[in-house]
Design goal:
The structure is a single chain. The chain contains nine helices and 18 strands. It is of the alpha/beta class and about 425 residues long. It folds into two domains: about 290 residues, Alpha/Beta hydrolase fold, catalytic domain (Rossmann fold, 3-Layer(aba) Sandwich); about 100 residues, Immunoglobulin-like. The strands form three sheets. A ten-stranded mixed beta sheet has the order 1-2-3-5-4-6-7-8-9-11, sandwiched between helices. The chain has a five-stranded antiparallel beta sheet with strand order 12-13-18-15-16, with no helix packed on it. It has a three-stranded antiparallel beta sheet with strand order 10-14-17, with no helix packed on it.
Length: about 425
């Protein structure tokens, strides 16, 4: 009986200690020492909840921050969401071995933040939204973020401030369940993340709900920020990839930036093995994207391969959407936006794919920094020898249809029309 009472009192004490105001996080020095696996400085934090996250009961959470190999100011931040088979500790331990969930391995010049969603019952990145979890899908559907999503965003912001992170170079990635979380949390928060990379995301429903993709629609008087540039690689022979046909169509219809690669590599996490099937998965330098720079979105491209979803899931051939398009910002001023558009060349990329010499695509412009274009405004444009006028859509996005893009770079110039 004394032992039982002691356990009750201990549990009650822990719950009181982890109350709604148990923030900011506190370092666990002993835990960090035990976890050291990377050869880089590592900080382990523990914290309770903030009331505004909306958790029904108190809980304690853990996250890990790994420092760059060489100390530097204004470093990028590489944010990792683990799979359902991991927690934050086992996720970090994966980084000790090359090939063990390669997406978890942060670049040496970045800070890395590893978040946890395993310690507390039901606290999944995706809210459990997948065709296999119908009841959880119903409970967590809609556009409102769940408590875990609010916790994740607040933790990223706290780490950014605490470690003096470059606010324009924050990147989100994840594997499996963490890949689904990267889609749902990352796309929704384009004002925070520069780019997102998802390794075999375990479901697209989280992103479909949070982004109000079809059959939903963005509510009136609600504005989604321009999304991060997204890299997604999934396998048609992976049951968790179901629905990618709907997801790719939604991204294309919304004129959102997507680089999508696939092949029959299953629910894999080893990049070397995946690249034996599709060697494009690391070909786009997503960590060079900056949040304070305009980017080009390529849609309806002539060089896209047919998707194997939903009817050809046993397709053996690898494929890509937008895999060869690139851009570079030249000028972004109040008077003019100028970018170079081009296809990556065989000299720049070694791949088993045939790299096209030209492609036609619709090109939209997002995250414009200085040139002000309101919905309905007309702009004048030129691209090589072609030129014309275009009207911004209801979102203020400029789209130029059917541009011919080649491996020879050409400048796209946008100016507001004289009224």
């Amino acid at each position: 009986m004394k032992i039982y009472i002691g356990l009750v009192l201990t549990t009650a004490t822990l719950l009181l200690a982890v109350h709604a105001e148990d923030w900011p996080p506190a370092k666990d020095l002993a835990g960090a020492k035990d976890l050291a696996v990377s050869g880089r400085t590592l900080d382990l934090y523990r914290h309770g909840i903030k009331e505004e996250w909306g958790y029904a009961v108190p809980q304690q959470d853990t996250f890990v921050v790994i420092h760059p190999g060489t100390a530097r100011k204004q470093a990028p931040l590489y944010v990792v969401l683990h799979s359902a088979g991991h927690d934050v500790i086992s996720c970090v331990k994966c980084t000790a071995t090359v090939g063990n969930h390669d997406i978890y391995h942060s670049p040496d010049d970045c800070y890395a933040l590893y978040l946890d969603c395993r310690a507390n019952r039901g606290d999944w990145w995706w809210g459990g939204m997948h065709a296999r979890d119908q009841k959880l899908t119903e409970r967590n559907s809609g556009g409102d973020p769940m408590p875990v999503e609010r916790r994740a965003i607040d933790t990223v912001k706290w780490v950014m401030q605490t470690y003096a992170i470059d606010p324009n170079r924050v990147y989100l990635c994840g594997n499996s369940m963490g890949g689904s979380g990267a889609l749902g949390i990352g796309l929704r928060n384009g004002d925070l993340f520069a780019a997102v990379k998802a390794n075999v995301p375990a479901g697209i429903e989280h992103a479909v709900q949070r982004m109000y993709f079809s059959p939903g629609s963005v509510p009136d008087n609600f504005t989604l920020p321009d999304p991060p540039v997204l890299i997604d690689y999934s396998a048609p022979n992976d049951g968790w990839s179901t629905g990618h046909d709907r997801f790719v169509k939604a991204m294309n219809d919304r004129k959102y930036p997507l680089y999508f690669y696939w092949g029959p590599f299953g629910h894999a996490n080893n990049h070397a093995k995946i690249m034996q099937v599709n060697d494009l998965i690391n070909s786009f330098d997503w960590l060079a994207i900056k949040k304070n720079e305009a980017y080009a979105v390529f849609t309806n491209a002539s060089t896209n391969h047919p998707l194997p979803w939903p009817d050809n899931r046993q397709e053996k051939a690898p494929g890509q959407v937008n895999g060869f398009f690139r851009w570079k910002v030249i000028h972004d001023t109040k008077e003019q936006l100028e970018l170079s558009l081009f296809l990556v060349s065989p000299a720049q990329l070694t791949t088993r794919f045939t790299i096209p010499s030209e492609a036609r695509a619709d090109v939209s412009l997002r995250r414009i920094q200085h040139l002000r274009v309101a919905p309905g405004d007309t702009v004048n444009w030129s691209f090589g020898s072609a030129k014309g006028a275009a009207k911004a859509d209801a979102e203020g996005v400029i789209t130029l249809p059917g541009l011919t893009i080649t491996t020879a770079s050409k400048h796209l110039s946008i100016r507001t029309a004289t009224k």
